[in-house]
Amino acid sequence: MKNIITKIANRVIHLLARNLPGSTSVRPFLHRLRGVKIHKNVWIGDDVYIDNDYPEMIEIHENAGILLRCTLLAHTRGPGKIVIGKNVVVGCGCVISCPPNYTLTIGEGSVITANSVILKSIPPFSFVAAPQAKPVAKVTVPFFGNVSYDEFMAGLIPIKRTRENSDT
């Protein structure tokens, strides 16, 4: 079990790493101080959250890029491990979360598009795309000003899906 001083220091360094400039220098250095295994030439964007409780359970290999506002969690009711392979790009706003006693690996050369949620390993050289947002209803009562949530919801008209508009 980590002592309270170590936990506090880890969180302070983490805050600095999330907010200071230096995506290829300062941020990787600070995360290394926290225990994250970071290889050479790694790019870490603004506001990237890397597990506070188990930073040592995250490994990022050479030439990987973790773009802004990503979250990497190496625990869910117990530690697992996250390994981000060489030449991987993790797009903006992604969440990578690992269950206990599991090693979640993002394979070498893979690209994960923005806002994807990753809960299982990804094979090498994969292109992973999150489902794209699609219209599901027509708005007849704009959700603005004094319009209540119930009024807004009552004014929605579901869009019927046909083969022609299933991709829009």
3D architecture notes:
This protein has 168 residues and is of the alpha/beta class. The chain folds into 2 domains: 4-128, 3 Solenoid (UDP N-Acetylglucosamine Acyltransferase, domain 1); 134-168, no CATH class. The chain is 18% helix and 23% strand. It is built from 3 helices and 15 strands. Strands 2-5-8-11-13 form a 5-stranded parallel β-sheet, with no helix packed on it. α1 runs antiparallel to α2 (26-34). It is globular. The relative contact order is 0.10. The mean pLDDT is 93.
Task: Put the structure in a nutshell.
The chain has helices at 4-19, 26-34, 149-154, and strands at residues 37-38, 43-44, 49-50, 58-60, 65-66, 71-73, 81-84, 89-90, 95-97, 103-106, 111-112, 117-118, 127-128, 137-139, 156-158. By secondary structure, the chain is α/β, with parallel strands linked by helices.
Strand order of the largest sheet: 2-5-8-11-13
Beta-strand segment tally: 15
State the major sheet: 5 strands, parallel
First-last Cα distance:
51 Å
Oligomer: single chain
What's the overall average pLDDT, rounded?
93
Instruction: Return the CATH topology of the largest domain.
Output: UDP N-Acetylglucosamine Acyltransferase, domain 1
Structural class: alpha/beta
Shape: globular
Please estimate the helix content.
10-25%
The CATH superfamily of the largest domain appears as Hexapeptide repeat proteins
Strand content: 15-25%
Count helical runs: 3
User: Regarding CATH, which class of the largest domain?
Assistant: Mainly Beta
- Extract low-pLDDT stretches: none
What sequence of helices (H) and strands (E) makes up the elements?
A: HHEEEEEEEEEEEEEEHE
Please give the CATH architecture of the largest domain: 3 Solenoid
Radius of gyration computed on alpha carbons: 20 Å
Our count of domains comes out at: 2
